[in-house]
Amino acid sequence: MERYSGNECRADELKRAESEASTVLAADPRQGIGYIAARPRMALYIEYNARIYEVYLNFSRRKTKMDATSYWDEMIMVLVAEQTANKERCMENEND
Fold it and tell me: Are 86 and 42 in contact (CB under 8 A)?
C-alpha cells in the first residue's frame, strides 16, 4: 500500500487506497484500529475561560483603568453560540 500525505492524494488514489484497506480488513478483522470518540468539552472550556477572564479584569482594572467588558461579553456570547451549535450537531449525529 502506498503512503499519502498532505495534498499529494487525489480522489481516485484515495478510493483505490480505501478499497485496498477494505480488502485487507475483510481478510483479517484484527488489522483494524480501535478508537474512542470523546465528547466535546466546550462548556468546561467556557467556564475556565470565564474564571481566567475574571482574574484578568480584576488585574487590568487596577493597572490600566481599561474596560474591555463589552468585547469579552461579545466573545463569550460567540463561544456559547458555537458550543450550542456543536452540541446540536452532536445530538443530530447520535440520532442518525
Answer: yes
